[in-house]
Amino acid sequence: MTNEHGKMANGGGMLYPFNGIWPTIADDCFIAPGARIIGNVQIESGSSIWFNVVIRGDVGVIRIGQNTNIQDGSVVHVSSGGINTLIGDNVLIGHMALIHGTRIEDGGFVGFNAATMDNSHIKKNGMLAAGSLLSPGKTIGEAELWLGRPAKFMRNLDSEMLSNNAKGVKGYAEIAAKYIKEFQS
Fold first, then answer.
1. 1 in a domain, yes or no?
2. Residues 6+ away with beta carbon under 8 Å from 112
3. For the segment 36-76, what is each residue's pLDDT rounded down to a tens digit?
4. Of 181, 180, 185, 135, which Cα lies nearest the Cα of 13?
5. 3-state class (DSSP) for residue 176
6. What is the CATH number of the domain that holds 41?
7. Which structural domain, as residue segments, surrounds residue 50?
């Protein structure tokens, strides 16, 4: 469904252009009702954007990889200073997170109500704990856990934690597929 302002995505969320640029969403993504995706945003296959998420690619580029999920109430934006937001494959972004001008590599994890700021970077399988704030320009190393406001290195993630994160990605993909089926009925 399309009107003069936007069009409905697979699942019921809405897509809007900015400066004539529409979001590009893979056909098998689930975009939940209430989600809003604006402008220069690309979301790859198998990803899910949950209820009331805002992804706003107006003053820069947002790229979201495969099988990534952005959970309810989160906001993803770019920096007006020219810093894009690049999110890899198999990333978990928890409820009410704020992602701003950040690079998150494959397998990255951002906990509930956590925030990343301009030019921050979460390397492969890195984890920002719930409620934490990753300050501008800070980098979480590969398979590291950071915690606090401001976030600081706590420890390296063990294989059990990495496995749990992978299970979370799989679980969100499975429930997104059920939602897609439900909304297509």
1. no
2. 94, 95, 96, 97, 130, 131
3. 999 999 999 999 999 999 999 999 999 999 999 999 999 99
4. 180
5. helix
6. 2.160.10.10
7. 7-184
Dump pLDDT digits (tens) for 2-33: 555 899 998 999 999 999 999 999 999 999 99
Number of domains in the chain: 1
134 occurs within a structural domain? yes
Q: What is the largest CA-CA distance in the chain?
A: 50
Residue 128 token pair: 């920002």
For residue 54, being part of any structural domain is answered with yes
pTM metric for this prediction: 0.95
Residue 171 lies in a domain: yes
Query: Does a cis peptide bond (omega within 30 degrees of 0) precede residue 150?
Result: yes
Nearest to 183 by CA among 6, 3, 8, 7: 8
